[in-house]
Structure formats: structure tokens, C-alpha cells
Amino acid sequence: MRPSFATHIPRRNIFTSQFSVHQVHNRVPGPRNARTSAGVSSMAGPIKMPEFYPHGLKTLTPGNTIVEALQLLGPGFQLRPLDTPSPYVRPKMALYDFNGKQRRWDVVEAHSSVGVVLYHRDLDSWILVRQFRPAVYASLLRQAEAAGQPPPPFSAAFTYELCAGLIDKSKSNVEICQEEILEECGFAVPLECLREVGTGISAAGTEGVPHTIYYAEVDSSMCVAGAGGGLLSHGECIEVLALPLTASQRFVGDSSLPKSPGLMFGLTWGYFNKLNGSLGTRPAAAADGADGGSNPLLTEELTLRPVLPA
């Protein structure tokens, strides 16, 4: 999801901004450009940081994993008060009458958004994205400072999410979904294949904007060479992951994994609707065991060949 407020305003590059206060912990040494360094190890993430691939998760973006993203992050992180109006969010105070008294509530004007539950037919898996979230790190940093603990590693602020995007341009919701799926995950999905699931309210206490979730299915024939992983020039380094359908509820219930509420809802909705046949049948070779272990397509070798070359 892109952190912009006004259309056509350049996004801040989170990987090259002035982060200079706190030292990075658990930083992985290596080349600065993840997109051109896949030769270092096409499986850098699973090999170097296997703990970031629980519940049968497989990376579909070799050379663009959490390891490469950590290499792109700078040496520190700092928080400052806004010194100019933000083009992304607009803090305001709402004054209203309640029970005969004037009340105040601080709010943030922000864009509505869309998210997409993506099912990969060939892999019998959900397609997720993972990326560094500065707001998550800022929250973890506050908690650590309050507890008198050292700053957390940047790796703690990589969250699992649905493919998603802000409604910040003159396009329909499904057109924005289609664009985000290609940009973040690398699949070309026809507009007619996007199905609306429902709409919830995002950050009701501060933003209160609609977040509409859609559903779509993809397969390896829909991959677009060179697409996916976000736009590095806009500060994005997004890892695309395949989560076996059979492991999705264990994944949702694992509180040690930072994940968005939209992802938790989407995977749960998709899991039960897939099992009861509302979303069509699963492949004949779909795994019935834990973590999709019997699905021959969910191997490192076969997964990495056809999907999203780095």
C-alpha cells in the first residue's frame, strides 16, 4: 500500500531517507542493490534467515527477499515532529457536541484503500507480500524505550500483508487492484476476474476510512517477467510469498508474526470458502498434509523457475 496522500506527489524513499539515530541490529552485510545482486544467492532469504519462512512459506522473489531489503536500509532511524504539512496524511481535531458538551477527537485525514486476497491455483497457496513498515518500527521503538531495552532490529518491522493500494487516483477500485497486483506481485489479472468480498473500516479511531477487499485467482501463466516486488525507485522492496492453503489458519493464529488485520480476515475468509467449494475446487494434487508438504510445486526449485525473476 502506497503511503501517499495527494495524487502525483512523489513518495518519500524510506530506504534513502535520513535515518541516523539508532544503530541497525542484525544487519546482513551485502550489496546495496537487491534487484541486481540475485547472483549472490537466489535463495538468500530462506538460507540466511530461515526463521522468516515459517508455516511452509516460500519466497517467489529470489534476489528480492527480506535479506536484500535489510541491505537497503540505512544505519539508523529517527522520529521528528512534522515541520511542513504532510502530503500523505493530515492530522486534524474534530469538535462535536455530545450529551450537551463539546467534545474533541483527534483524527487523521487519509485515503480509502483496497486489498486483494490472491489464491495461486498451481501452488494451492495464498500470495502474500512482506515489506518494511516505518510506522511499525516506530511503535516497536517506543515500546523498547519505555521498557529500557535496546532498539529492536529492523527485521522486526517487516509485516505480512495482502497486496493492497490506496485509492489515490482517478481509477476504479478494480483497476487499482489490477495495478497493485502487477506492481507488487507480478501477475496480470483481468478486471473481470476480480470479485468484491466486502468493505471494512480502517483505523476507526483515527482515520475511519473504507478498506475494500477483493478476491482473485492467479496461476503461473499470468506471471509477467520483471514485474512484482514494488517500485525500488519509490522506496519499495516487497517480497512476494506463497503460503500453503493448508497452513493458513496456523499462520493467522501465530501471534509472533506481525500481520495486518486485513490479511488475517482475508486468509480466514478464503480458507473456509475454499474448503466448502464456494471459491471453486482445489487442484487434484492439493496437499492435505501440514504446510503443503506433498505439493510438488511448492519446492524451492520449481517455485523459483517460472515466477517473478529477480
3D architecture notes:
It is an enzyme of class 3 (hydrolase). The protein has helices at 44-48, 66-72, 134-146, 173-185, 248-253, 261-275, 300-304, and strands spanning 58-59, 90-98, 101-109, 113-120, 125-132, 158-161, 163-166, 195-202, 209-218, 239-244. The radius of gyration is 20 Å and the shape is globular. The two termini are 21 Å apart. A hairpin with a 2-residue loop joins β2 and β3. The strands form 2 sheets. Strands 1, 4, 5, 6, 7, 8, 9 and 10 form an 8-stranded mixed beta sheet that branches. Strands 2-3 form a two-stranded antiparallel ribbon. The chain is α+β, with helices and mostly antiparallel strands and 310 residues long. It has one domain (34-80, 87-304): Nucleoside Triphosphate Pyrophosphohydrolase, CATH 3.90.79.10.
